[in-house]
Specification:
By secondary structure, the chain is α/β, with parallel strands linked by helices. It has a domain of 101 residues: Rossmann fold (3-Layer(aba) Sandwich). Helix content is 41%, strand content 15%. The strands form two sheets. It has an eight-stranded mixed β-sheet, with helices on both faces. A two-stranded antiparallel sheet has the order 5-10. Helix 2 links the parallel strand 2 and strand 3. Helix 1 runs parallel beside helix 2 and helix 6 packs antiparallel against helix 7. The termini are far apart.
C-alpha cells in the first residue's frame, strides 16, 4: 500500500498551465503528503487568466495531502517571489524538496532526496542536493558526488543552509575578493563568477535568487551533491520563461532512474574533474566551440531553415 511521500515538496509556478499539469501528475503519482504551492501575482490580464488556470489544477488534489498555498496578489518578480516564498517554507520546515513548474522529475529523484536529506542533515559542509546531471561523458564511481555549484533544476536543502545565505550584492567588493581567493574553483570559474557579479552591479538588476544562494554557499566552502544520472527534465525553455528563454546547446533533458540502494562516496570532497566538465558544459571555451562539429551542424541548420 502506498502511504505517500512524506518529505515536504515546494512547487514554484507562474503562468504555464501545461507545465503545471505535468507537475500535478507527478505529485499525484508519488502521493505527496505535504505540498507548498508558491506563485507570484500577475503582471497583466493574460497572466491572471493563466494563473487562475494553474491554481484550478492544484484544486483537483484527490489524495491525502496538506497543500499550503503561498500566493501573492501583486507581482513581485520571479527572484523576489521565490526568495520570500522559500523564506516562509523554511520558517515552517527543517528540510524540503524544491521544484519549479517546468522541472519534471524522474520518480527516483524523490527517494534519492529523502535518503540524502536524512543522511546529511547534520553535516554543515553540504549545502544542497541537486537532481540534474548533464555530463554524459563522465561516469561516476558512486551514486552521487560533490561539487561546488550544482544546478538548481530540481533540488533539496535544509533550513540551516537556506538561512545561512548572505546578500552577495550588498557586500559586492568583499564577495569578489573572496571569489578571487578561493582555491575551490579554477581560474576560469572564478573569473566567470566575478564577471557575472560585475554585470549585475553595472546593470543595477537584482541578482537571481539561485545565483545568490549558490555563490553564498561557495563562499562558505560548502559543497553540493550531484547524482550519477540526470533525474530532472527542464521543459521550460521558451519565450515566457524568466531565466531560460534560450536553450543550452547539448542539453536534451533525458532522465534516467537512479538505482537503489545508493552507493555513498567514502569522503565529502569536491570532485574537481566533474566540476570542470560541468562548468565547460555551460561555458565552453572558444577552442571547444571551434572543434565542435555538432555545433556547426546546428548553426548551419538554423541558417538554412
Amino acid at each position: 500500500m502506498n502511504n505517500g511521500f512524506n518529505v515536504p515538496i515546494v512547487i514554484i509556478f507562474f503562468n504555464r498551465p501545461d507545465a503545471v499539469r505535468k507537475q500535478f501528475e507527478v505529485m499525484r503519482e508519488i502521493r505527496c503528503r505535504k505540498l507548498y504551492l508558491i506563485a507570484d501575482g500577475p503582471r497583466n490580464q493574460e497572466d491572471s487568466r493563466k494563473l487562475d488556470e494553474c491554481k484550478k489544477i492544484w484544486q483537483q488534489i484527490d489524495w491525502e495531502c496538506d497543500a499550503v498555498t503561498v500566493y501573492e496578489r501583486e507581482n513581485l518578480g520571479c527572484d523576489i517571489r521565490v526568495k520570500t516564498g522559500l523564506d516562509l517554507v523554511f520558517q515552517q520546515e527543517e528540510q524540503a524538496i524544491i521544484l519549479e513548474d517546468d522541472c519534471i522529475a524522474d520518480k527516483s529523484f524523490f527517494p534519492y532526496c529523502r535518503y540524502l536529506l536524512d543522511k546529511y542533515k547534520e553535516n554543515e559542509s553540504i549545502s544542497y542536493i541537486a537532481g540534474s546531471n548533464q555530463i554524459r561523458d563522465y561516469r561516476m564511481q558512486y551514486s552521487y558526488d560533490y561539487i561546488m555549484c550544482a544546478w538548481t533544476w530540481g533540488w533539496a536543502t535544509w533550513r540551516r543552509a537556506w538561512q545561512a545565505q548572505t546578500d552577495i550584492m550588498a557586500s559586492y567588493d568583499r564577495s569578489c575578493q573572496m571569489l578571487q581567493k578561493t582555491k575551490q574553483l579554477s581560474y576560469a570559474e572564478r573569473r566567470n563568477k566575478i564577471k557575472l557579479l560585475e554585470s549585475y552591479k553595472q546593470s543595477g538588476q537584482m541578482l537571481p535568487w539561485d545565483y545568490n544562494f549558490i555563490i553564498s554557499m561557495m563562499l562558505q566552502d560548502k559543497v553540493s551533491i550531484v547524482p550519477c544520472n540526470n533525474l530532472i527534465c527542464n521543459c521550460g525553455f521558451s519565450m515566457d520563461a524568466t531565466h531560460t528563454q534560450d536553450g543550452i546547446e547539448g542539453y536534451d533533458g533525458k532522465t534516467e532512474e537512479i538505482k537503489t540502494p545508493l552507493i555513498d562516496p567514502p569522503e565529502v570532497r569536491a570532485n574537481r574533474k566533474y566540476q570542470e566538465k560541468s562548468f565547460r558544459f555551460l561555458c565552453p571555451s572558444l577552442w571547444t566551440k571551434v572543434r565542435d562539429k555538432e555545433r556547426w551542424k546546428r548553426l548551419l541548420r538554423r541558417v538554412w531553415k
